[in-house]
Amino acid sequence: MTLRVLVAGGAGYIGSHTAKALKAAGHLPVVLDDLSTGHEEAVRFGPFVRGSIQDAACVTRAVREHRIDAVLHFAANAYVRESLENPRKYFRNNVANTVHFLDALLEEGVKTIVFSSTCAVYGIPPSLPIVETTPTKPINPYGQSKLMIEDVLRWYGKLEKLSWMALRYFNAAGADPDGELGENHEPETHLIPLLVAAALGQREPVRVFGTTFPTPDGTAVRDYIHVADLATAHVRAVTHLAAGGASESVNLGTGKGTSIREVIASVERATGKPVPVIYGEPSPGDPPILVADPARAHALGHRFEHDLDSIVATAVAWAKKGTHRA
Fold first, then answer.
1. Does 4-173+224-252 carry CATH code 3.40.50.720?
2. Residue 281: CB partners within 8 Å, gap ≥ 6?
3. Residue ranges of the domains in the chain?
4. Which phi and psi (to 5°) does residue 11 adopt?
5. Which of 63, 85, 132, 312 could form a Cys-Cys staple with 108, CB 3.0–4.6 A?
C-alpha cells in the first residue's frame, strides 16, 4: 500500500523525522507548514506546501493537487509554560485551527488522520504506569487543548466516519541516526538538548527543578522515547488506519522511567564532559513520575529500538554538527 500523506507541521522536529520515515517506507510525504516554528531545510523528502492549517483554501489546493489519501497532524504549539501564560494562543491555534483543518479535509473526502497528542492529557496520574484508560485530567491549557481535539476526533469518527488515531507521546528526544535531522527549537525547552549544549559549552548551566521528589534519587522520572521510534510509529499508525484498523488513542512511551540525574550521567558519558547544572525547587504541579504502559502500542506492532544512551548519542552527534540546522 502506497499512501500520499499530508504532513501538517512537517517542517518541525517530529514531523520532519516522520516525513523521512514515510519516504523510507515507500509513501509520499507532502509537507504543509507555515514555518512559524519549523525549518524549510528540514523539508527534503517530498513536496512542500507553505501555508497554514487554518487556511481552508490552501488545504483544499494541497489535497487536490497531491491527491492526498491520509493526514498526519503535528501543527500545534507545545510549550506547557507558555500555555499557562497565554491560554488564548493555545485554544486558538491548537483547537480552533485544528477544527477548521478537519472540516476542510472532510469537505475533500479525506477521512484518515493521525493526531499528535501528548501524555499531558493525563495531568497528574493517580497510578503508574499510565494506561490509555487512566483518567484524563490535564493541568495546563496545552494538555487540555490536545484532549479537546481527541474529543472532536471521537465525535467526528462517530458522526462523520472519520478514521483517526491519537498518539499520546511521552518525552520525545534524540536526533536522526543518519545525522540529517535534529532538534532546533526556539526557545529550546527539552532536557536532553539543553544538557548536551551545556556540556559542550554552547549554553549556560541548566536549571533542574526539584531534588526532593519521592523517586530513587530525588529528581523527576520521565519516559524518554527516540524521535525515530516515534516517526516509525506514525507510519505504522497511518497504514493501520488505511487498512481499516480501529480508531483509538494510544500511548507512545517505552515503559522505562529515567530520572534527570540518570540523564545527566548519560550525557556526561557521551560527551566526556561534566554537565553544569543548577538545582532548584520543583515547579508547582510537576508530577514526580510519568511512565507509560506500552502494552497497547506493542499490540499494534510498535517497537522502540533506542535506549537512553542511544538517544543521547544521537543528540550529541547532532549538537556537534552545529545549532543552526533543521
1. yes
2. 209, 210
3. 4-173+224-252, 191-223+255-321
4. -95, 0
5. 63
Q: Which residues contact 32 (CB under 8 A, 6 or more apart)?
A: 6, 7, 8, 9, 10, 49, 51, 53, 58, 59, 62, 75
Model pTM greater than 0.90? yes
**Helix spans in the chain (H):** 13-24, 56-66, 80-85, 87-90, 97-107, 141-160, 191-199, 227-242, 260-271, 295-299, 308-321
What are the tens digits of pLDDT across the range 51-90?
Answer: 999 999 999 999 999 999 999 999 999 999 899 999 999 9
- Under a CB-based contact definition with an 8 Å cutoff, are residues 4 and 67 in contact? yes
User: Tell me: the pLDDT tens digits for 173-208?
Assistant: 999 999 999 998 888 989 999 999 999 999 999 999
Please, what sign has the CA dihedral across residues 81, 198, 312, 287? negative
The x, y and z cell numbers of residue 74, run together, are 503535528
Active site residues: 142
Residue 188 — left, alpha, or beta (φ > 0 → left; ψ -120 to 50 → alpha)? beta
Q: Positive or negative, the Cα torsion across 190, 191, 196, 199?
A: positive
The residue-averaged pLDDT of 85-107 equals 98
- Residues with Cβ within 8 Å of residue 279, at least 6 apart in sequence: 207, 208, 211
The pLDDT of 279-305, averaged and rounded, is 92
Q: Rounded distance, CA 77 to CA 264, Å?
A: 27
Position 48: which residue type? Answer: F
Per 3-state DSSP, the chain is made up of helix, strand and coil in percentages (nearest 5) of 40, 20, 40
- Check if CATH label 3.55.50.30 holds for domain 191-223+255-321: no
> Cβ distance 295 to 223 under 8 Å?
no
